[in-house]
Amino acid sequence: QQGDADGDHVAFYSQDMNQGMQERMRIETGLRHALGNGQLLLHYQPKFSISTGKIIGAEALVRWHHPERGLVPPAEFIPLAEATGLVVQVGEWVLEAACAQAQKWKEAGLPPIRLAVNVSAREFTSALPGRVTETLKRYGLEPSWLELEITESTLMHNIDRVIGIMDRITALGVTLSLDDFGTGYSSLSYLKRFPIDTLKIDRSFTTGIPADANDCAIASTIISIAQQLKHKVIAEGVETVEQLAFLKSSGCDEVQGYLFSQPLPAAQFEQALRDNWRPAQADKAA
Ligand code: C2E
Ligand code: MG
Ligand code: MG
Ligand code: MG
């Protein structure tokens, strides 16, 4: 009887594993199909200057328009794409789509902004600077239109090689920001060596402001580190006027979050940019 139970257990276990693998394969096959069939799209979340309240840029965020499941958020396919390596093709598509969009906005005479693209660790290879150069050239874009957001996981392996790639990218005039800052393992001794323009305070810290004293301390410490290292600093996930007020009084440069705007379809973001839209919330903390 004991043996049967064990047998059942093993059978259930491998069935679960099987279902997990099948699910992964289903998503992977679907994502390959999505790449070739125009099912990916970008939304654009505005970034604001705290001092002027104006839109200074946007973060391009990928979505999968699935024929049956609707708009699938990146959390449901990017981690898998990172595990399988498919994220490299996704990243190529994202850079291409973001630059194509920037060219349209430029040609429409909209004020120049900086468009940020998220780049996974696996994409951060010696081929990236050349691909960025070639793509900007093809769309006739000045490098100042483009920013790449990298996370601390990119910085964990072969640091000299990574810094070499970062240097080649910033030499082009493309800026780099360090996303989800404070959640990874990058050491402060390396931080000073990275040619980055902006630190992005992770949403998990912003969320605790102002009630959580630790989150407030971490956020203001990140702001002062950024200031000392002559980097700009942006807080992500700003949802309340209290958070905005705290960040403003702590010397944060820029904000991004639902308080101002969710990520928007291109046409809506364009409208916001045309209106030179200044959200009423920006005044409340002044
Ligand atoms: P991220 O780069 O840290 O992007 C910020 C995420 O926070 C976005 O989620 C955005 O919609 C969300 N967000 C912004 N403001 C608020 C707020 O006030 N409250 C809350 N609750 N959330 C807010 P999204 O679009 O679902 O993207 C999630 C993650 O997926 C991104 O985190 C990024 O790591 C990854 N991702 C998105 N697009 C790409 C891409 O094109 N390439 C790669 N490699 N990763 C991507
Ligand atoms: Mg990001
Ligand atoms: Mg982020
Ligand atoms: Mg984040």
TrEMBL record:
First and last residue of the signal peptide: none
Source domain of life: Bacteria
EAL domain residues: 24-277
Name of the featured protein: EAL domain-containing protein
Organism: Rugamonas fusca
Residues of the full protein shown: 398 to 683 of 683
